[in-house]
UniProtKB/TrEMBL annotation, chain A:
GO terms for cellular component: nucleus; SCF ubiquitin ligase complex. Pfam families: F-box_5, LRR_6, Transp_inhibit. InterPro entries: COI1_F-box (IPR041567), F-box_dom (IPR001810), Leu-rich_rpt (IPR001611), Leu-rich_rpt_Cys-con_subtyp (IPR006553), LRR_dom_sf (IPR032675), Transp_inhibit (IPR041101). This is AUXIN SIGNALING F-BOX 2-like.
UniProtKB/TrEMBL annotation, chain B:
One of its GO terms (biological process) is auxin-activated signaling pathway. Keywords: Auxin signaling pathway, Nucleus, Repressor, Transcription, Transcription regulation. It comes from the Eukaryota. It holds the Pfam family AUX_IAA. SUPFAM superfamilies: CAD & PB1 domains. One of its GO terms (cellular component) is nucleus. This is Auxin-responsive protein. The keyword Transmembrane helix does not apply. It comes from Olea europaea subsp. europaea. Belongs to the Aux/IAA family.
Amino acid sequence: MVNYFPEEVLEHVFSFLTSHRDRNAVSLVCKSWYNVERFSRGKVFIGNCYAISPERLISRFPRVRSLTLKGKPHFADFNLVLHDWGGYVYPWIEAMAKGCTNLEELRLKRMLVSDASLELIAKSFPNFKSLVLVSCEGFTTDGLAAIASNCRFLRELDLQENEVEDPRGQWLSCFPDSCTSLASLNFACLKGEVNLAALERLVARCRNLKSLRLNHAVPPDVLQKILARAPQLVDLGAGSFVHDPESETYNKLKNVMQKCTSIRSLSGFLDVNARCLPAIYPICINLSSLNLSYAPGIYSKELVKLIRKCKKLQCLWILDTIGDKGLRVVASACKELQELRVFKSDPNDVGNAAVTEEGLVAISAGCPNLNSLLYFCRQMTNTALITVAKNCPNFIRFRLCTLDPITPDAVTMQPLDNGFGAIVQSCKGLKRLSVSGLLTDQVFLYIGMYAEQLEMLSIAFAGNSDKGMVYVLNGCKKLKKLEIRDSPFGNMALLADTGKYETMRSLWMSSCKVTFGACKSLAEKMPRLNVEIINEGDEMEGGSDDRQNVEKMYLYRTLVGPRKDAPDSVWTL
Amino acid sequence: MENTFLGCGGGISGGISTVLREENNMAMSSEESSSYPDEAELELGLGLSLGGGGAKSKSKPPLPAVAAAGPWGQYARILTAKDFHSVVSTKESSSSSSSSSVTKTNNNPSCGVKRTAEPSSPPGRSGSSQVVGWPPIRTYRIQSLVNHAKSPMTEEITSALDKCKSNNTIVDKTNIGSNLNRNVAKEKGLLKKPSLFVKVNMDGIPIGRKVDLNAHRCYKTLSQTLDEMFKLSAAVGATRSNAEEQVVMTKPSRLMNVSSEFVLAYEDKEGDWMLVGDVPWEYVPSTSHYIFLTDSAPLWLVYVLAKSIKFIVFSSLF
C-alpha cells in the first residue's frame, strides 16, 4: 500500500523526521523511499570525514543544506594524535562549492580548517548562515574576517575551544553595517583583542542576538554597555569579569544584569574577581545552564554561594575546586540537575583541590534526574559507584576519570570492576562510558553482558588479557566507537571478530599488544576498513618486523578506500 | 615586565624544602655581590619550609618554622633578576616533572626550573603526572587554565593600586586570634569589609600572629604592620613577646622597599613560575591564607595565586 503514496506525500511525511538515524532507516526500506528521502534530506551528519567522499555525498544528497563533519579521533584531544594526521575540510568545501551551493550550515569538529577554506565558504555559498567550529585548528582571524565580510545572512558564528592565531585582530569590524541577522556569536576562545566599538555597534544592530560569548579581551565597562543594549540575551559568556566592586561600572553592571531576565545560560568568567559575583545573583534563579569550568579564579565558597541560588539548574560544568562539600550543596540546591561535569582545576595535581567519591554519592542522592556525568576525581570506591547506580538509573553518559589511572577502590583496595558493573547493569540506556581505575577483565564481562545500548567506550590502563576486549566486542551490539590505550589487549582480541568493525565507526588502540603483522592481516581481510598505523618514531622502515608491537593503530570503516592526504608518519595498510 | 615561564611540575612538600634551600643558598651567594652590606646583621634562619603537600602528605614530620599544620602546598616568591638566573641554572628537571611539563605545556617555553618530585608521595600520584595524555583533559582547557591564572590585570585594578599608593592607610590593629581559621564572621557587622585574618609566622619563631588583610589597602601598610609585629627593624633574634601594643616606627619598614626593583614571581596552576610586575593588592586579600616571614636577601615577596593554599612570604631586602 505504501507504494501508492505519491512522492510528495512521502516527502512531506519524511520532513518530520529530523534525526539522521531515522532518515537512514527510512532510506533502507525500498528504492522509492530511498530516492524520496535522499532528495529531501537537508541535514547530513558524517561522523568520520574519511568514511565517505564529498562527491558521493553530493551525488546522493544533492539538496543538502547542513553538513556536520568530524575529523580526528577523540584521543587527539589528549595529544595522542599527530597534529597533521589529517581531517582537512578544504576538499569538502571545494566539492560543495562546485556541486551544492545552497549550503547554509557547516559544523566541524576536530578538523583542520585553513583560512583558504573559510574564504572559500565566504565566496561560494550565498545563503550561508551558520558556522560552528569545535576543537578545530589551522585558521586565523583573517579567515573569520572573510566570513564576517561576505556572508550577508550570517546567523551563527560559534567558535568552541579552537586554536586560532590572531595576526591582525580586526575581524569583528568586518561585519558590514548591513549585517543585522546575527543570532549567535561565540568568540570566547580567541586570544587576541577585538575592536570594542565595532562589537558594541554589532550588538546594537542585531536585534535577534540571543547568544553572545565574549573573550577575555572585552573589559567590564564594555560588557555592561553590551548588556544594556541586549537585554534579550538568552546565553551569555562573560570573558572578563574583573571589577573593582566599588566602581561606577560595577554598579551599572549590577543594574543592567537585573534587567537581563532572559538569560538561561551563563559561561566564561575567564578572568574574575570573585567579589563581583553578587552582580549575577539576580539571574541565577533563571539559569538552566552554568559553565564555570574556565574560571579558576572563583573559590569554593563563592562558587557555592552562587550555585545555591540556581535552583533550576539542569547543566553544571565546574572545577574540582568546589570540593565534596560544595557538591553536597549542589545536591541540595539543584534538584533538576541532569548534566554535571567536574573538571580538574589543576592538571598536575600539585595542590589540594579535588573531589572524591563522597561528592558523587551526594550528587546522586540529591539529583535523581542526573543522566550525564564527567567526573575527574582523586579516588573512587565500589560502594560509591553501586550507590550511584542505584540512585541514578538514567545515565546516558557516564565518564569517570581517576587522577591515578590504576587506582583501586580507595577503601578495600580491590579493583573497581563491581562498581562499574553496577553502573552498566542499572543504567539500561547507557550510551557512552569511560572507565578508569584498577580494572580487570571482569569489568568488561559486565559491560559486554549489560551495556546493550552502549555506543562509545573509552578504556585506559585496564584489563588483564584479550578476553576483556573480546567480551566487549561480542556483547555490545550497538558499539560504534571503541578507544583503548595502554591495555594488554593483543592480536587474538583484535582478530576475534573482524566483521564487527564494519558495524562500528572506528577503533583506536594505542600502547596495547597488537602487532604489525596482525594489523596487516586485518587490513588484507577487510578491504572496507582503513587500518592506519601512526608512527612517531622511525621504528617502521620498509620491511618492518611483523612481530613488533604497534604503538598506535586507528581503524575505521570506509567506502572510499585509503585516504591520500595522510602524512608520511601515517601508514594505511 | 616580561613574563618568563619556568616550568614546574611534579609533587611538592619534602621536595620543595630541599629545593628551597638550594634556592636560598643561591640567593645568599648573590647577596654577597649586592650593594647593601647592612644586611648581615639580620640573621633570621633560612628554611622556608612547608608542611605537607596534601592529604596524603600529612604524615610527614612537620618541618620547622611552620607553626600550624596545614595542607600548604604552593607558594611563590619574588626573585630578582639575579636570582632568576641562578635559580634557573641550578634547577635540574627531574625526568618525571619534565615529562609532565613537556606533554602538558607544549606551548609554553619552559626555562627548566622544576621542582623535584615528591619523594614519598604515593607512587600512583607521581606516576599519573608522568603519563602522556593523562588525565585526559583537552589541551585547550589546560592552556586556558594556565593562561587565565596568570592573566594581566585590568585598568581598574591597577588604578585601585595607584589610589592606594597615594594614601596613607592606617596600620591596623592586630590580635592574636583564638581561632586559627580565616575569619569572615564579621560580614554583617560594623566593619565595612569583613575581617580577613590570616596567620603570620616568622621563620624561627614558634609563636604566630594574625593580621587582617582587609584592613590594608596596599603592600606598604601591610609590611609596616608586619615589621612592627615582629620588630624586624630592631635587633635580631628577639624572642617574641605577645606584643599587642603598637610600636611606633622610627625606621622605615625594612620589609619592603616600596617600588623597588624587585621582581614578583608567582606560581600558577600549571606549576610554572610567572614573573609579573606589581601584583595588584586587589588580589591579595582574596587569595591569601597565610603569611610567612623569612630572611634571605634579596627581598622575596611571595605570592601564590593558583592553589587553594596561598600565602605571602616577606623577606628583608637590600
